[in-house]
Amino acid sequence: MRSVFAGACGAALLALALNATPVRADERHGGARAEHADARHGHNHYYPDRGGFVHAVPGRPFVVSRGGGRFFYSGGVWYAPRGPSFVVVAAPVGVFVPVLPPFYTTLWIGGLPYYYANDTYYVWRDAQDGYEVVDPPNDPGASSESPPGEAPPGDDLYIYPHNGQPADRQASDKYECHRWASAQTGFDPTQSAGGVPPEQTQLKRADYERAMRACLEGRGYSVR
User: Fold this and answer.
1) What dihedral angle (degrees, nearest 10) is formed by the CA atoms of 117, 48, 159, 134?
2) pTM for this model (two decimals)
3) How many CA atoms are closer than 13 Å to the CA of 30, on its beta-carbon side?
4) Which residues contact 104 (CB under 8 A, 6 or more apart)?
5) DSSP for 71-130?
6) What phi, psi does 90 have (nearest 5°)?
7) Phi, psi of 106 (to 5 degrees)
8) DSSP state, 193?
9) What distance in Å separates the CA atoms of residue 181 and residue 127, rounded to the nearest whole number?
10) Strand positions, DSSP E, the chain
11) Spatial CA neighbour of 194 closest among 170, 178, 173
12) What is d(CA 201, CA 186) in angstroms, rounded to the nearest whole number?
């Protein structure tokens, strides 16, 4: 009888140990699965491991065609169809997306901003009016500290979604407000010096940040 009891206890302990594996239930990314912390460049956000499967891509994904296949981009995570499901994959280099991930880290290389999230680097391209997925920059001088007079869109703003807006909606709202604020003020922080004469940078940047704040608050966010 004791051996049966001991066996049952051992099985229970084994189950507890298995349940202690670092797997999170993350509704933003379609359910429970293994995740990893992306600490590169001080980014410090969690993302689902590549190779994991989901039954459906969460949120409102942006669909990209590349090399005869399709990729689905949502919340900074990339998916590809595999049978009836979708698998988490690496971002295809060279494709363009209209918005950055909801959480990103800005790196400055040669005075130009790169945007980093989930082991992926993005660069703004005026000609395509979007962000291109690029190869990792091979530059030891990359820094998350912006040069004097430079500021990437929204990096100094902390927003809270009062209406429970999902991550992909937050990214879309931030991008659309950035476009509107840039058009209103003539200041585009994705360009060197904001695209204005150096003597106007500080004033125009302040105008841009006020416009961003007004736009985001009008869409149901608290901005600090």
Assistant:
1) 20
2) 0.63
3) 25
4) 43, 76, 115, 116, 117, 122
5) EEEETTEEEEEETTEEEEEPPPTT-EESS--SS-EEEEETTEEEEEETTEEEEEETTTTE
6) -75, 150
7) -90, 130
8) G
9) 19
10) 23-26, 31-38, 45-48, 53-54, 62-66, 69-74, 77-82, 85-89, 96-97, 105-109, 112-117, 120-125, 130-134, 159-161, 221-223
11) 178
12) 10
CA–CA separation, 49 and 118 (whole Å): 10
Q: How far apart are CA 30 and CA 25, in angstroms?
A: 8
Radius of gyration of the chain (CA): 21
Q: What is the pLDDT of residues 79-88, one digit of tens each?
A: 999 999 999 9
Domain limits of the chain?
Answer: 2-92, 149-224
The tokens of 171 are what?
A: 């990214």
Q: Are 79 and 57 in contact (CB under 8 A)?
A: yes
> What pLDDT is stored for residue 95 in this prediction?
96
Tokens in use for 189? 């922080």
Task: Look up tokens 């909606």; give the residue.
Answer: 169
Would you say residue 168 has pLDDT above 90?
no
Q: What are the tokens at 32?
A: 């429970």
